[in-house]
Amino acid sequence: MRLPLLVTLLPLLLASLALAAPSSSPYAPSSFIRKDSIAIPAGWAKRAPATGNEVVHLHLGLAKRDQLGLEARLQQISDPDHADYGKWLSADDVAEYFSPSAETRSIVSRWLQAHGVEESHVTKRSDMGNSISFSVPLAQARAMLGDADFAYFQHRDSGEERFTATSYSLPREVAPHIDAVFGLANFARGASFRAPYKMVMDDDLEASSAAPSSCQFNLVTAQCLRDLYGTADYKPSGKGQFIGISGFLEEYANYDDLAQYEADQRPDAKGYKFSEVSINGGLNDQSKPGGEASLDVQTVAGIAYPINSTYYSTAGRPPFKADAFTPTNTNEPYEDELNYLIGLKKLPSVLSTSYGDDEQTVPLEYAKRICSDIAGLTARGVSMLYASGDNGVGDTASVCKSNDGKNTTMFLPTFPSTCPWVTSVGATMRFDPEVVTTKEASFIISGSGFSNYFPRPDYQKKAVAGYLAKIGNKHANLYNHTGRAYPDIAAQGSRFKIAVKGKFGAVSGTSASTPLFASIVALLNDARFKAGKPQLGFLNPLIYGLEGKGFNDITQGSATGCGTDGFPALEGWDPAVGYGTPQFDTLKKLVGA
Ligand SMILES: *[C@@H]1O[C@H](CO)[C@@H](O)[C@H](O)[C@H]1NC(C)=O
Ligand SMILES: *[C@@H]1O[C@H](CO)[C@@H](O)[C@H](O)[C@H]1NC(C)=O
Ligand SMILES: *[C@@H]1O[C@H](CO)[C@@H](O)[C@H](O)[C@H]1NC(C)=O
What we know:
593 residues, 15 helices, binds 2-acetamido-2-deoxy-beta-D-glucopyranose
């Protein structure tokens, strides 16, 4: 994973730290500018002010040398009509765009030096040198961050506590060189998108008139999904790629439960195991099987066998909690995971992530930075799939309010699905035909919406304009008409038969849809490799270019929520389930395999 470039960059940053002339604080408070801020989101309350004795762990994202250059190149290599389609970048190529410039390194180093932060204080530095961590006493953190209002906050339902500020500033000359201070003004919780596990007895099974005959509404098996989407007869080579599965929040993937699932639903996969990788000390404790982790690794085994898979367990909860004199980790899971992956020589072909947050609980500059990291991985040729969420356009009417102090009634979009470089996956249920999931039947509603942070990317402008023309003024004041719309596509997400702690039950969620769709993308890659073609990588320009070809159009149901009937599924693309669910055989032909 160590890049040659890293070898040259690290000493440079260290050298610039060491060479900077010490000086007393050269930054007058009047020259600070606001970097990020957030209102305390619903569900959180300020519990206590800082005591003054805290040690604060700061994790800076340094500006990247050429983010726009990377995005421009990504647009070319992901455009099926471009001569360079599929020429995904190497780790070194991305480092060229993403490492900080010499100017950024020296300005940041001088600022840190002025506050007595020496190279020996730096506890962590990313391979590309674009993120660094260190700890400082509270008073010093406040001096560096324009008197940031550090305090203790608590999440009412979970009791989760965190020590953060609702806004922070940086000196005017430093601000353009730091994208974000991770963890500050950030109330992301990284929820996993799955409904509580439901025990289903075999005698509960509801007969379905559906084709295929392997499908039963109450308990959906791997065979049903393989028959439904047409992958059952495809014989993968399994070579040349592996599927990545994101694990956060101490969700651990269990080998015994996987073996039990295989015996029940994929006897031919007997003995197939995922590999595990620990990021930042993430564990995979076999005595604590997690429902989300089980759903993810079992679905991938059930659909993508024999393609290998890797479970990435990233430690920590976002962002951080500090006790007096005991700085804890910054616990910035998204950033830690993406940063780790982006430096690897060998990456998964597909990454399936079943976690997300209300967009307004993460600050804008932070969201932009995470989205930029995602663009970097996408440019490496990784299909970055994220669950669209389980609450339709938002949970109950009482929570569907803006977080800017004005309490404006609005739909609540989900991040990272709102990032234009991800492929966002919605959820369907039933088979004859497939429809948008409902809370009554499948406990979850396919997540849906429009970003308030990211403008609509070109690849989806035509499709979204077509939908908006059809719905006219419906909910016109509840969503952002210029924002990135999601999901892009969908897959079954209702009542998957999954083993957890030795027992089978039904699990629903876009958390189920995402590893399912990821597996089908990996199978398409497998077919492409056989035809001598590169992996599919960033899917959205391809998918929107197909204008629905290769997908089952879902036209029944609606992504309800916020006390409304939400966005209805209509003919063609819609924000309930995107273009619909995959037809493997047709897609295989369409991608030239
Ligand atoms: C899959 O992983 C196993 C275990 O790490 C390895 O032995 C095998 O070669 C891999 N298969 C492929 C096709 O890469
Ligand atoms: C917004 O809602 C919160 C919580 O219900 C309330 O405390 C606050 O006063 C409201 N603000 C406005 C401007 O209505
Ligand atoms: C709507 O989205 C755009 C980005 O596309 C953003 O600039 C604007 O602030 C958003 N509007 C609201 C009300 O959040």
